Amino acid sequence: MLMNDVITGVDLLATAVFAISGALAAAQGRHDVLGFILFGTITGIGGGTLRDLLLGVDSIFWFTRTEYLWICMGASVATWFLAPLFDSISKVLLWADAVGLALFSVLGAVKAVQFGAPPIVAVGMGVMTATFGSMIRDTLLNKEPVLLGPEIYVTAAVLGAAAYTLLHSYTDWALPIAIALAFTLRACAIVFDLRLPKYGKPADE
Amino acid sequence: MLMNDVITGVDLLATAVFAISGALAAAQGRHDVLGFILFGTITGIGGGTLRDLLLGVDSIFWFTRTEYLWICMGASVATWFLAPLFDSISKVLLWADAVGLALFSVLGAVKAVQFGAPPIVAVGMGVMTATFGSMIRDTLLNKEPVLLGPEIYVTAAVLGAAAYTLLHSYTDWALPIAIALAFTLRACAIVFDLRLPKYGKPADE
Amino acid sequence: MLMNDVITGVDLLATAVFAISGALAAAQGRHDVLGFILFGTITGIGGGTLRDLLLGVDSIFWFTRTEYLWICMGASVATWFLAPLFDSISKVLLWADAVGLALFSVLGAVKAVQFGAPPIVAVGMGVMTATFGSMIRDTLLNKEPVLLGPEIYVTAAVLGAAAYTLLHSYTDWALPIAIALAFTLRACAIVFDLRLPKYGKPADE
């Protein structure tokens, strides 16, 4: 019970963070306040919606728990007023996205595990929950998807989801450990510009 | 019963209108007749399909009622032959899209309300039904999504869906009133070039 | 029983072929090994996943049968190592895509027919199964979707799906005949550059 409360709290937090990242992307595109709400909401609930569709749950999470929708709308409208206070929107967007990535990759795996998914499916669901919202956001805004950027992004989501999937039957601390691992890897990737090797020899370029 | 017949009739009309708008977009891209059918069908049933998936209905509407598919195909093929008669395809496309937007935003809310969705979800479903088909159409054709254009577009869908959701328990005229409101707002936006204020001060630009 | 084994075998083969085509597209974009896996998996299971969602099956096919996911990952990683051996990646990609197109268009119709879908829906499901994976692949990579290319592509998928849907109650050979028809048409389109007539008179251009 307590554990579920913690999970719900983290889930709402991650939703707000991703909604902010969606609204900030709308700010970069100079959209109107409805565009902020639209992108905030799509980014905030897009990943979890796809996860629920693919898991085949009886009812998508925001159908009964409308607080997820209100949080997306509230965070988006708040961003409309607060975004001008930030000097560098793209930097805030980058870090908001990193926090959301860590939280959602693990929570997606949590929900899939609760639903009885095999480990490989749980990892896939975690990665999808964490990346699908940003993917739609970037596709609609015609931006290079952060998903395909050179830095380690999907890798961090894989790490978070896999860590939870592997550890959850051994320790009660699987949730915070997995989130910390995913965030640390993504943060290092941003700060130290870590990359996986690209396909093709340098000589080819 | 009668009400349901009216709703079905309006729904088929909106499907045909959106299919035409999809086929006209294919005409702008100079695609072949199969491209017309493809874009006509995606635009015509895309929004309702996503709505049904998210509502978790037992069976997507066009699975049993294949007349929706035939109407999309028929309207697309008809557009192939008739489009050359129009001087300005983009103008016809704009207005076909406006009619479809008004009809579908309200009908999406109608179906969600019938399904027992909370008001905020019903409004969201209306907006989604009205915009998702065009969104795929524009993304696939690499056009600037009309959804993100400067004029009031999503706002009109929100107005139509919200008006029906609020009024349907008070009056039998909720359906035509909501459609008229959504269409009037969208029409004014097109004619008078109405916009919501954009993010960012003019001085920034 | 035997028939189902054949279908499963062909399905796994088509999945591997499409996963390779996805990984080759990642190679053209010079992505890292995780990008290969991501695009390989999306392309390999994307079409079947949409088909299952729209059919409303109880459980998406790869939820219980995780071998589909492993095959996508294996084929993608293998492509990472083997792609440098090919002189012309784009040519291999083109033909891998043609094989996958023929197999999936027919198999999508097979599954829909087994599920009791009306003929027009079965054809639509076949086309979707065959094209949706490549469509996401190309959209994400910002490539002109092969789907919208001038050559006959969707037409081949329609032919394969329609042939199976029409023939399956008359002959046990519907599966291989339909696959052969779809592949032959697509192969002819590639070799002889077959096209459907485009919209608009030449004089317009």
UniProtKB/TrEMBL annotation, chains A, B, C:
| Major site of localization recorded for this protein | membrane
Q: How does it sit in the membrane?
A: Multi-pass membrane protein
Q: Where are the transmembrane segments?
A: 6-26, 33-56, 68-85, 116-136, 148-167, 173-192
Spell out the Pfam families in the cross-references.
Gly_transporter
Glycine transporter domain residues are 10-83, 94-168
- State its location(s): Cell membrane
Superkingdom of origin organism: Bacteria
Q: Which InterPro entries match?
A: Gly_transporter (IPR005115)
**What keywords were assigned to this record?**
Cell membrane, Membrane, Transmembrane, Transmembrane helix
- Does Cell membrane count among this protein's keywords? yes
What cellular component terms from Gene Ontology apply here? plasma membrane
* Keyword flag Cell membrane: yes
Question: What family, per the record?
Answer: Belongs to the UPF0126 family.
Q: What is this protein called?
A: Trimeric intracellular cation channel family protein
Organism the protein comes from:
Halioglobus maricola
